[in-house]
Structure formats: structure tokens, C-alpha cells
Design goal:
Antimicrobial Protein, Tachycitin, Chain A, three-stranded antiparallel sheet, alpha+beta, chitin binding, 3 helices, CLUMA_CG014445, isoform A, two-stranded antiparallel ribbon, 23% strand
């Protein structure tokens, strides 16, 4: 019984981790480095749904980062700014403005 419980918990953990991983934007950091001429640590991408979070490119893919709780990520300065109605730019909005 104990082994069954451990197995179920392990599978649930794997499912959650896989789901979280797949919800990240499909950004190819290598392509962005080639297109922009910037280094990996200079490329930031808005989170797909939470304006307080964003991703930074690394040579191993995207790393999720977070602004201070009263700030939101603003991709046009690659930094965090005070929260306002017009500065919450999610990944889909950002991609539509920057094809």
C-alpha cells in the first residue's frame, strides 16, 4: 500500500512538472540570439499569463524570473515597472507586436 501511494505521488509530480514545462512560451533562445545580436542573458520574454513574471534566455533554455510583487515586467525596457493598466504585456500580446 505504501509503495502504491509513493508511486501515485511520483506520477502526479511528474505530470505537474511536465504540464508546467509545456505551458512555457515556445521561444528558441538560439534563434533570438542570432536575430537580435544580443547575448543570452540580454534576452527577456514576457510570461504567457502573469505580468509579474518573465523569462530570461540562457544557453540551456528559458529560466522563469519574477518582479517584486508590486511591479510588472515591461518588455520594452527589459525590466520591472510600477503596475498600471496599460503596461501588462503578456507573451501573446508581445509576439503579436514583435513577429
Amino acid at each position: 500500500m505504501k509503495l502504491l501511494l509513493i508511486s501515485v505521488l511520483f506520477l502526479a509530480f511528474i505530470a505537474i512538472a511536465t504540464c508546467q514545462e509545456s505551458s512555457r512560451p515556445s521561444v528558441n533562445c538560439d534563434d533570438m540570439v542570432a536575430q537580435t545580436g544580443r547575448s543570452y542573458n540580454e534576452i527577456y520574454v514576457p510570461h504567457e499569463s502573469n505580468c509579474n513574471k518573465f523569462y530570461q534566455c540562457t544557453d540551456h533554455g528559458l529560466v522563469e524570473l519574477k518582479c517584486h510583487q508590486t511591479l510588472v515586467f515591461f518588455p520594452y525596457i527589459n525590466g520591472c515597472v510600477e503596475k498600471a493598466p496599460d503596461n501588462c504585456i503578456t507573451y501573446n500580446t508581445w509576439r503579436s507586436l514583435n513577429p
